[in-house]
Fold this sequence. Notes:
This protein is globular. The chain is mostly helical. It contains twelve helices and no strands. About 55% of the residues lie in helices and about 0% in strands. The protein has a single domain, classed as Hypothetical protein, domain 2 (Endonuclease III, domain 1, Orthogonal Bundle), CATH 1.10.340.30. Iron/sulfur cluster binds near residues 191, 192, 198 and 208.
Amino acid sequence: MALTAKEIRSVNQLLLRWYVKSARPLKIRERSDPYSVLIVEVMAQQTQISRVDQLAERFLSRFPTLAALAKAETADVLEAWRGLGYNRRALSLHRAAQAAHAAGGLPATHEELQLLPGIGPYTARAVAAIAFGGSEIPVDVNIARVVQRLTGEAKLTPKPLQAAANAFGAELKANEAGAWAQAAMDLANAHCRASTPDCDSCPLRSVCHSAGRVAAPPPRKVGAAPRFSSTRRWLRGRLLDELRDAGAAGVKLRGARGEHDA
Ligand code: SF4
């Protein structure tokens, strides 16, 4: 159900207050320039934030500016991406940097950011909110869970979900939406977990419409999941590692690898 403006303001106040004391100690959050925020947000799409925290500095020292990344060779970008997985993101990020650099820099609004190659609604809103003071809340799977539980509306489709998240943004002061999103992420990790929510010690318990009433998740289907080493994703990663290691010398990609025949 829609929260009243008073309830929303209470959520915002409790969440931001909790975040000041309990934010995860991430080095990457010390950077708030648009280029660094873009890099970190793209990395964090499918990689754990603790791993991004370890690896983002290496990438940013290799390519410290939008111009440096835009002018880099693709092979160098893939080399700097080593350890992050899902290498397609590195290629999209490279193309986005080239497009933004050619246009004179990263745009400030989520609508314009979303026009860059490979930048989706979540990343665009995250960069706009954290780096440019945008007021729209970025919604990924974690923030969606928090918003849906706070409002007691379990199955919102993307548009109403974004509207419900933006209702929190509308009651924030200027430049607070980025911190709100990071706080909600940390809350999703510390308390509002998908299958084991810890409502008892959640700072939002008094204002949450689902406190203590989150339905148990359906039992996981126990099936024969393929071994990772038998998947195409595993094979792609190994082949790319070999190509990275070989550099300009190149490599013969014939022969079996893991559970994959020649
Ligand atoms: S009270 Fe429970 S359901 Fe509500 S936000 Fe906190 S952990 Fe999530």
